[in-house]
Amino acid sequence: MKILITGIAGFIAFNFAEKLLKQKNVKVIGIDNFSSYYSVKLKKKRIIHLKKNKNFKFFKIDLIEKNKLVKLFQKNKFDEVHNFAAQAGVRYSMQNPTAYVDTNVSGFSNIMSLSKDFKIKKFFYASSSSVYGDNNKFPLKETEKIYPKNIYGLTKKFNEEIAQNFYDMHNFRSIGLRFFTVFGEWGRPDMFLFKILNASFSKKIFYLNNKGNHYRDFTYIDDVISILLRLRKIKIVNHEIYNICSNNPVGLKKVIKFISNYIPKTKIVLRKKQLADIFKTHGCNKKVTRKLKNLKFTKLEKSLLNTVRWFERNKKLFN
Ligand SMILES: NC(=O)c1ccc[n+]([C@@H]2O[C@H](COP(=O)([O-])OP(=O)(O)OC[C@H]3O[C@@H](n4cnc5c(N)ncnc54)[C@H](O)[C@@H]3O)[C@@H](O)[C@H]2O)c1
To answer: When you count CB atoms within 10 A of the terminal residue's CB, does the N or C end of the chain come out lower?
Structure first.
């Protein structure tokens, strides 16, 4: 079984590949462009870690480079494609919208078209809770109307529309994954939790947006990966979208209070709400729990503690 994973040097794809490679008869080919949006050192460390497994191969390819992608598809008969590569981040989309259009629209269209042309049986792609915008019909169901509030969310909405169009026009089947604030080991330095951990351990100031009055449906990476591993086993019959969330919105202040017991004292400066930010995310996970049955979610305290302990052991990666 040969599996292509894009954005492999990124947080979610790396964790997914790591678990996948523990299974028998699985070969993973990973691609990434080592975008400098956040620490390339961390991304390279993730790849070094994966390369310890002989069933893993890495190629530095940008989703924009269609010719290279064509050659990769010609050389390898992929059974599955998982597209995680993206220009992520909400606030950065205000400064550099082009990066989002290039990777998340043109790049996405390249990988999806090729997967269709090469008749890939299982195509999964990362969408985002950002497609919901400031919709407050909580918990948000997949059937809710979506009104993204920033360019990042807009590009993810467009991915979903392309995927639906490919199904309608070409019967190309796929699964879209609306991730909600994923956190955990090997996490992202541009996201709230790792930002505060980094500030705390390196004695820097942490700027808390909206004075901490934000709520997020924090979802632990281990739970996300268990869901992804089980979803890849299902038969894909159309274009489906699933919320990947814990259905448990928690205030940032509560998270800070909890982790404060385990980290050095942090100097926190309160800031006003940033324009592109969403006040609260809270997804309904009934669709995925019904599909997969017996899904278990790790207690927030346990997953936060695992993350803090991991960060403490690996803080050098974040300097
Ligand atoms: N982490 C979350 O909470 C979260 C929430 C919602 C959606 N998502 C989505 O899930 C996916 C994975 O997120 P993540 O947290 O692992 O992000 P990440 O930034 O850690 O990973 C994305 C990877 O894609 C690579 N990449 C960027 N542009 C590329 C290009 N043009 N060609 C090839 N590679 C490219 C980056 O170098 C990076 O390694 C993304 O699509 C993201 O938008 C994540």
So the answer is: C
How far apart, in Å, are the Cα atoms of 230 and each of 61, 165, 196, 227, 291? 28, 25, 32, 5, 10
Third-level CATH fold of 2-318: Rossmann fold (3.40.50)
CB atoms within 10 A of CB 280: 16
* Mutation pick for ligand 1 pocket among 4, 35, 130 (CB with most ligand atoms within 8 Å): 35
- Per-residue pLDDT of 258-292, as tens digits, reads 999 999 999 999 999 888 889 999 999 999 999 99
Rounded Cα gap, residues 206 and 271, in angstroms: 10
CB atoms within 10 A of CB 2: 15
Known catalytic residue: 152? yes
pTM over 0.70? The answer is: yes
Looking at 38, 152, 167, 242, which residue is catalytic?
152
SS3 9: coil
